[in-house]
Design goal:
Blueprint (H helix, E strand, L loop, with lengths): L1 H18 L37 H12 L7 H5 L5 E2 L2 E2 L2 E2 L5 E2 L2 E8 L5 E11 H21 L4 E8 L22 E9 L4 E3 L7 H14 L2 E3 L11 E4 L9 E3 L25 H4 L1 H14 L26
Parallel strand pairs: 6-7, 10-12
Antiparallel strand pairs: 1-5, 2-5, 3-4, 5-6, 7-8, 8-9, 8-11, 10-11
Length: 322
């Protein structure tokens, strides 16, 4: 039995050798010698100055948006305007169509006076930091002492308009307004702690007070527009810091006098001490008296009009007379 099994195995081995003369593996098909190894070159080491590896590209791309939205370093204006000067938190930059918007923007909510009292800006104004700083300095240095001279304190600044992406005077196709650059503020009135207010364009407001504000703003801002500049600024005062050649400035605000009192529609009642109206009561007698006066009064002597001299007659010659 064992011999039969051994014979079978021998026959199987012979058949395998007949099909494949050499053993499979690392030997050649004819000689049976080991195959030469093929050396695959490895990549060179990555230089240090090369960009991030491909494996980190996904992470780098993921971090790019976060870097774009990261808040920029605060400007010198932002560092100088602390909460001891103004309540003006920073807001993200605005970039709209046609160069509209800007960087380093703040929302001016209130100005802090040297005595720590606050002057609210209602509603809050979106401005460049430099424009907000100019408004804060104006209120702290000029308008707060102005209110003190009136025997009160400044409480509110009436904001008519600040940032708005539009052309000048809201005219379609016009040049970009300084409001579109967040570089302008429209002021309507100053409100005081005693409940009173000063409307800057009200002709019935005290002229001396409006003139004081005029002198103040024209010395601080490069553009001041009010009544008399154009009909777009008849009800507010426009302030901005537009830069022009050679430092050119515009101050166009006419401080008008108060309007005259309107005359009554009906005539005043006749006072009791007035004399009787003889002419009005007796119209016929009045006419007769007038006619009598005309008859009595002599007519004015008229100067004689010089008459032309008569033309002299020509003498006729007699026949044969010499």
């Amino acid at each position: 039995m064992v011999s039969v099994i051994a014979l079978s195995l021998a026959l199987l081995a012979g058949a395998a050798q007949a099909r494949s003369p050499v053993l499979r593996g690392e030997f050649g098909p004819e000689t049976g010698q080991p195959k030469p190894r093929i050396v695959v070159p490895l990549p060179k080491p990555r230089p240090p100055e090369a960009p991030a590896a491909e494996d980190g590209e996904g992470e780098a791309r993921t971090s790019e948006p976060a870097a774009e939205h990261a808040a920029p370093a605060p400007s010198a204006c932002r560092l100088a305007r602390t909460e001891a000067v103004a309540i003006a938190p920073s807001i993200p930059a605005i970039h709209g169509p046609g160069s509209c918007g800007g960087d380093d923007l703040v929302r001016l909510e209130a100005i802090v006076l040297p005595d720590s009292k606050q002057v609210a800006v209602k509603p809050a104004a979106i401005l460049r930091c430099t424009m907000a700083a100019a408004i804060a300095d104006w209120v702290r240095s000029d308008m707060a002492p102005f209110a003190e001279r009136l025997g009160t304190a400044l409480s509110d600044l009436d904001n008519f308009d600040s940032f708005e992406c539009r052309g000048r005077n809201r005219v379609s196709g016009a040049k970009l307004s300084e409001h579109g650059r967040a570089n302008a503020l429209d002021v309507r009135a100053l409100k005081f702690a005693n409940g009173q207010s000063l409307s800057l364009t009200d002709r019935n407001a005290p002229r001396i007070q409006r003139e004081a504000v005029l002198q103040s703003v024209c010395g601080r801002f490069t553009t001041v527009l009010g009544p008399g500049s154009d009909w777009y600024h008849e009800d507010h005062i426009h302030l901005d810091l537009a830069e022009r050649r050679s430092g050119y400035r515009i101050c166009q605000w006419n401080v008008y006098d108060s309007l005259p009192a309107v005359a009554p529609l009906l005539p005043a009642e006749r006072p009791e001490e007035a004399p009787p109206r003889d002419v009005a009561a007796k119209p016929e007698a009045g006419k007769a008296d007038a006619a009598g006066r005309d008859a009595v009064e002599p007519e004015a002597e008229q100067e004689p009009v010089p008459q032309p001299k008569p033309r002299p007659a020509k003498k006729r010659r007699r026949a044969g007379a010499f």
